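call fold target=peptidylprolyl isomerase
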Amino acid sequence: MNSICKALLLLAFFIFINSAGAQNLSEPQAALASVNGVKLTTAEYQKWLRQAIADGAPETPELRNKVFNDLVTREAIAQDVKKTKLLERDNNAFKLELAQSNALQEIWFAEYFKAHPLTDAQVRAEYERQVTLSREAKNSQEYQISQIVVTSEDQANEFIRQLKNGTNFESLAKQKSIDQKTASMGGMLGWVLPSQLTPPINLVVPNLLRGQITQNPIQIGVYWHVIKVDDIRPFVMPSFDQAKVGIAQSLVQQRRQDALANLMKNVKVAKVYN
């Protein structure tokens, strides 16, 4: 949609909401605008506006303008995708399916964290625990590690073989790891102490050199992990203010893994192939 059309629609929006007709905006199916004859309703507009506010945006005229503009743009793109049959090309239908699956996972995790919120007290307690642990000899060094998580030992072994033959770890993690949170970052978990890692990973990592990967997959619950040590450095305990964001992120990641492990305990998986 060109800028002139968008400007005209935006002008129509301003005229409408400032007119007597704005009284009808309380009706969910009231027409707010149309794009190539397709009606955009008040209900759609309010839904997107509420989400923007829930995400922390202040409710201002500028925000309302942006939400309206975005609504028009989304509809224009959706129409063009349908017109050009874009979903029938390449692997686009699967990409849409994958995005929906990833969104569903994030919705599930969001609901989990509603029931199990991370508190400031928990972050502080973890910091104090790390202060104590940092005094132990085994935690004199910290490790920057990456992971690939899969559901079968055979697949994990195949990835280890590929990595030994020169396949890029980051690319493989992005393509194949089922842990979406770390996969999007090439598998990177960040800097951790051995004591912060889930057993038996905490015993394996200190025996790896910089750049090395695990020789064998590591099983945690129903998942198999391939671990790489990206870097190693002496550990210096930062102040709480310096560490709290990283600690919170680490706790969130740990809880995500715990939530998945608890879920999978009650899931019956029956392989129907070799």
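return ok
Residues 18-23 have pLDDT under 50 and may be disordered. The longest strand covers residues 223-234.
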